[in-house]
Amino acid sequence: MTALTKLTDTYALNNGTKIPIVGFGTWQTPDGQVAYDSVLAALKAGYRHIDTAAAYGNEESVGKAIADSGVAREDLFVTTKLWNADHGYEATKKALATSLTKLGLDYVDLYLIHWPNPAPMRDHWEQLNAESWRAMEEAYADRKARAIGVSNFRAKHLDALLKTAKVVPAVNQIFLNPSDTQDEVVAYNRAHDILSEAYSPLGTGKIFGIPELKQLADRYHKTVAQVVLRWSLQHGFLPLPKSVHADRIEQNTDLFDFELSTADMQTIDGLHGVAGLAKDPDQTDF
Ligand code: A2P
């Protein structure tokens, strides 16, 4: 078990790459000044792990904030993701090159397949994932990505990928919070030494009104966000909280001066469905 003492503590991925245990999320952060300011605020607050995606449309602003922050590249962990329209061998190579250009980086620390089964490719998703993965394995060998992984994959998608993969995904980034603990996917990840990253760790903001969480937060003299992020860490997940407000960005780093009891962890585990559920990746319309 990784020590949970500070924001820059790391998990070791299955290829030995170290990854800071909390990442700054940028999904739904508008491109331009808002993305720029919030990433800069995050880096100032001590985050060293930034999560974006081609589909978020904010890679350029994220990259600009990284460049202007003065933080050394080797001290940063940057993730981006392959969008659905770019599945396939050649398209994946091109998409990564485009993301790197937008980010202004020579390499990303982690490159993920964003969704396993895009709607327009539903009849040949296995083949396309295998082809994308081959391109990603080459990018990994060429050091354009220090680690490669997937997002929103369930067991059947991972089983399919592992039939031809030479590199086991290092990460599976999924919708993961007290409202949907995705036990089956998490168990699969764990069995294959794949780190479970948690997007929407605060249920995209829907967990704040839950009375049980408010009571717990009061008892620990912490905020609901801090309790829920701590819950994520104590499960060994890697939460990616998103905010565009400097005070919340900072608040979400203050997770290391308390520990949830086993009983309180179980209470939070039992909140299934209070703030939405993960999308079924085989049923998406994109
Ligand atoms: P905002 O970006 O306006 O600060 P998730 O990380 O699960 O996607 O949740 C993000 C949502 O939760 C956003 O709407 C964000 O709003 C809000 N949020 C993030 N941190 C906090 C916090 N500490 N307190 C209240 N709301 C927060």
From TrEMBL:
Give the species this sequence originates from: Lactiplantibacillus modestisalitolerans
Q: Which InterPro entries does the record match to this protein?
A: AKR, Aldo/ket_reductase_CS, NAD(P)_OxRdtase_dom_sf, NADP_OxRdtase_dom
Q: PANTHER family this protein is in?
A: 2,5-DIKETO-D-GLUCONIC ACID REDUCTASE, NADP-DEPENDENT OXIDOREDUCTASE DOMAIN-CONTAINING PROTEIN
Q: What is this protein called?
A: Aldo/keto reductase
Residue ranges of domain NADP-dependent oxidoreductase in the record: 22-271
Source lineage: Bacteria, Bacillati, Bacillota, Bacilli, Lactobacillales
**A UniProt-annotated Pfam family:** Aldo_ket_red
Q: Which family does it belong to?
A: Belongs to the aldo/keto reductase family.
Please provide the record's keywords in A-Z order.
Answer: NADP, Oxidoreductase
